[in-house]
Amino acid sequence: MDKRPETLAAQALHRIDSETGAVIAPVHLATTYARGAGNALIGAHDYLRPEGPTQAHAADILAALEGGAGARLFASGLATAMAVFATLKPGAHVAAQTKMYYGAKKLLHHLESRGALTLTLFDPDEPDALAHAVRPGVTELVWIETPANPLWSLVDIARAADIAHGAGAVLAVDGTCAPPCTTRALDLGADMVMHSATKYLNGHSDVLAGAVITRAQDERWQALCDHHALTGAVPGPFEAWLLIRGLRTLFVRFERQSANGLKVAQALTGHPAISHVLYPGLPDHPGHAIAARQMTGGFGGLLSIRLKGGAEAAARLCASTQVFIQATSIGGVESLIEHRKPIEGPSSPTPDDLVRLSCGIEAADDLIDDLMAALERG
Ligand SMILES: *Cc1c(COP(=O)(O)O)cnc(C)c1O
Description:
Layout: H1 5-10, H2 53-66, E1 70-74, H3 77-86, E2 92-97, H4 102-113, E3 117-122, H5 129-133, E4 139-145, H6 157-166, E5 170-174, E6 192-196, E7 210-214, H7 219-231, H8 237-248, H9 250-268, E8 274-278, H10 288-294, E9 302-307, H11 310-320, E10 325-326, E11 336-339, H12 341-344, E12 354-358, H13 364-377
Parallel strand pairs: 2-3, 2-4, 4-5, 5-6, 10-11
Antiparallel strand pairs: 1-7, 6-7, 8-9, 9-12, 11-12
Helix pairs in contact: 2-8, 3-4, 9-13
The structure holds pyridoxal-5'-phosphate.
């Protein structure tokens, strides 16, 4: 029977351990795997780099949830991004967003400064900007992130795929902020989707990992696999096992985080200390129409606010909440708050009055009461 994604996630693909009947797959810590007659492997794995059974199980779940042909786990989200960039020809032209996760943008600039690639940045809020950024027959990769951390610009994946493919480029989507329970980028035309599994996919702020899932097992997939095997930027078995556990509850966590995100965004709208509430689920958000089409399982728990009192007010708010924890990262079951600009640095387009909120699964009223009291304290 063809099972739905919620079922596949909750049951971790219904894999019952054949030796013991255990309903939960064991964590396989072995670094090496035995061979028999003729040097033939007994099982499917030979050595823990590139992967063992636990990493392969997690990757299989992600391939199923994204509807992809192949998936590989990496040691972090950025190690995954690096794997994608490493498949490019030397000096390849890449189009990416001005507003995107600052770490991935820093990595692109770093590679550009070393001559590994050339970069054209486009504004994701300008509908025609991507079409102007690509160079037909030259651009090899279009890299988009939607919604884009931390301003939550929305990019139409299907349209970006048409533009990328029209120019002969590959479309890669950083789907960290829209996990497959709400957006399936490959179904919309992307060639590959990558995640920081550190965020929503694991969801408990206790695993650093990344993943890439591709639509086809083509030449670029092979190049990703080669990079995966040769560079060793892979997660350990215990991280992979925790990721499998986290994925079991992805759908219910995301549903609750989306409900909390919307309630918090609505409660903060019109507050006298706040100039902007940036949340894809609000009808007046510039990307709301795209989000409504593309985020079919909820708008998530991520939002940002901009404070009329500027950087000082933003810093004070983050230091004075008692439920929201002042810490970096997103997508976990506990709510986090962060003043972004000092983290991202002076070259970032993030305004210095911006506070990023990652809503967890707590009682929505506790989140709202906490923010209201902290804003009141000013
Ligand atoms: C955190 C993050 C990354 C990087 O992931 P790590 O696991 O921290 O390396 C990439 N993209 C987005 C959108 C992120 O939020």
